[in-house]
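Hi D.,

Good news: the full-assembly prediction came through. Inputs first.
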Amino acid sequence: MYLFSVDVTKCERCFDCVTSCPRGVFEEGEMHPILAHPEECMGCGICLALCRPKGLRIAGLEAYGHADRMVAIA
Ligand code: SF4
Ligand code: SF4
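Then the structure:
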């Protein structure tokens, strides 16, 4: 299973990641997207491509942001 994190200083809460994921991995949270079904991720990268501020990271797919600003999302 992939490891997800989001840079809370970059996330604009557009929730494009939520609406674009064909597998329903994310749900809207108050401050940032939350993981609803991470086991469903097929690694397509659509959410990463649509995240305009590049605040979303999925380990093993692409790396964005700075590790000291990243929080694990669950
Ligand atoms: S697409 Fe990026 S900026 Fe938009 S809610 Fe998701 S993580 Fe935040
Ligand atoms: S990589 Fe694809 S399947 Fe995985 S969370 Fe992003 S949009 Fe969903």
